[in-house]
């Protein structure tokens, strides 16, 4: 199983951050797994952003819910993250991951992408 993040590395404040995770070796429609986006803010632990399940249901972190949207393209086996109204505090390495669970415990995940740096700056 491989996951690969892609998207712009630089986003201006107030704009929308859009990232795509392309999955190979597994189907994102599997009902057993959750497909999450996670970021480790500098100097902090993991911050879980949200997941899209195999059923296509979504659930977002309460702290980011108002700005987060996740979707998927099953024909491409991809899922996406959109984070609106970004600020410099959203600067981080963003990871997509697969897990039987979700949240901030690394043990919930069995596969991770390599991560993509996103910087919010004008």
User: From the alpha-carbon coordinates, what is the Rg to the nearest angstrom?
Assistant: 13 Å
Overall geometric form = globular
Largest sheet: 7 strands, mixed
Number of helical regions: 0
**Helix-strand category:** mainly beta
Helices and strands, in order, run as: EEEEEEEEEEE
- Which runs of at least 5 residues are low in confidence (pLDDT < 50)? none
Average residue-wise pLDDT: 95
Cα end-to-end separation: 36 Å
Quick one: how many beta strands?
A: 11
Helix content: under 10%
Proportion of strand residues: over 45%
Outline the structure in words.
- By secondary structure, the chain is mainly β.
- Helix content is 0%, strand content 49%.
- It contains no helices and 11 strands.
- Strands 2, 4, 5, 6, 9, 10 and 11 form a 7-stranded mixed beta sheet that branches. Strands 1-3-8-7 form a 4-stranded antiparallel beta sheet, with no helix packed on it.
- The radius of gyration is 13 Å and the shape is globular.
